[in-house]
# Entry
Amino acid sequence: MRILTTKGREKLIAQLVERRNSVDERAVPVARRILEGVRKGGDAALFRHAARLDGITKQSQLHIPTEEMQQAFREVSPAFRKTLETAAKNIRRFAQKQLPKDWNFEQVPGLTVGQKIRPLASVGCYVPSGRYPLPSTLLMTAIPAQVAGVSRIVVVSPKPARETLAAAAYLGITEFYRIGGAQAIAALAYGTESIRGVEKIVGPGNAFVTAAKKLVSFDCAIDMLAGPTEIVITSENGDPALIASDLVAQAEHDPDALPIFITTKRELAEKVSAQVRQQVRQNPVAALAIQANGIIFVTKSVTESQELTNRLAPEHLTIDSERDLDWVQNAGSVFVGRYSAQPLGDYISGPNHTLPTGGLARVRGGLSVNDFVKTITVQQYDRKALRTLGPLAIALAEAEGLKGHANAIRARGARG
# Structure
């Protein structure tokens, strides 16, 4: 990894800070053609793309029958079934804690206001299966939807692994399609003769999936645009081998992954760099990411390290101790201390591993049960409250020149 001081590196830091969940512009025209084709051509267009890109030879193979998922569950090892059970339990418990509640209170005598939480009617969960099979992504996207009460959960995945099918069976998923890429996003967003559209699409994907999600986002809600994996470790006294192991672990997701270590200690930086060189020898994907994007910043002070970390707003952040949480303002998910390996959060801890990238952690957190519900506000006046607040509302309406607003309030008995 390149070891840099922050002095004279402001241009590089600015580029990192200003990075965005940019859509690969080369993927946009391809995604647009596929989206429009499926939108207009329905099943016929969907199957053409599925046959060419997903290797589907018969249209009946798009839909994965429940029996196939159940068979996969029977075929996986008892150890994997136990893992599914534990991971699902932890993810579900965390989502249940996040679930917002109905409430109301009396704003003034006679006026009750509150909120009602209602689930979305349908969601589509995109589960990648390219470089690695990702049953964990199925758990992380479908379980919060189940906790929210979404009645129709559709899963799409090109060439899903047996473990992914087993995870679907364990969760009771009944609508699973063996499709991916922009054609899967098109089917979820617009629907076809055999696949009904959904209200929201969640889950990460490749450049074509990301481009397609961006293009459909005004027709169908999406969670976020997922860019390459990011990791920042900010440490003054961490173990070099452990720091390197987390950097390599996240770097192996993608050659475009962004691994960064921040410290004031030059000696620690050099030890971490040496450990990374050693650990990537048998990990070619991680080696590519480290070579292209791996950076160690040696700062002048702990305060500068903290400020740089918050400016970067990383997807994953590791810090030394619980006390460090006080200064963290921008991060997708935070891992505290030597035992909190970042891959534990990818699989088993409970918090969602679908996290904001490209600096989006400045404005939102990771996928959660809140992405699958809507908040409906409620207000109920009686005559006393109308007479108390009505004249004030009339004054505001007239200040805005909206006579109909004022008249609607007066018609109910308010003076003003």
About this structure: The chain has three domains: 2-22+227-350, 27-102+122-226, 382-416. The chain has a mean pLDDT of 95.
